[in-house]
Amino acid sequence: MFDAHCHLAYEDIDLEKAIENAKKAGVRGIVMCAYPGDLQSSLKILEKHRGFVHLSFGLHPIDIADMSDKEIEGYIDFIRKNRYKAVAIGECGLDYHWYKERGSGQDKKFVRFFEKCIELSKELKLPLVLHTRKAEQECFDIIKRHGVEKAVFHCYSGNLTLAKQIIGSGFYISLATNILGSKNTKKIAKSFPLDRMLTETDSPYLSPVPGKKNEPANVKMVVGEIARLRGVSFEEVAKQTTENAERFFGLEL
Fold it and tell me: I need a labelling partner for 164 at 20 to 30 A (CA). Which of 19, 45, 96, 172 fits?
């Protein structure tokens, strides 16, 4: 199994325990999203667990809202200089859940730096990990307009019509632990092409266990639910989605 998206560089997370649990569960690797605020701790984790932990360099709308243009440009320059420490750019994108106002100066700033991340991914030849909360269609339209070839819609929660367009365009959809309670996600898991699906936990968020932090080992619940919905073996889904992740992130041996 493979956890294609998690966040573990926080002080209140028992990192070593989470990684030990993941390996015991049969997780082959994880991609940890590094934000500007946890960059140094993320790099230390990468060095300590290289080969199991991989990094994507993220610029979430929440980061953009709290950073000056100069700070953001400095972070983008850092990514350029450290390109070989990353397997992807993201998560990056738009968010109309926390930032509902459209057409504002803030909104335009989000789009401007999302487009910078897109161009950076093309420049560095790295895939894009997309944050598209309540902005799935707009993000899809933007990456199509920019000629993006390799992208995954992280923790996809959009509609089925757009999901068909996403997969039809050669992109990937990542299914997280919220699959256990999402009707649309279940429909995607049941009938969409398995070779275009990634699995993730978004740890420590989206915990399937009330009162407990999520962790990469719980990706087994995503794999198990996909297998149940499709009427196939757990092993078949685990093998295919792991191969998908390794292909997407360029980790194939």
Answer: 96
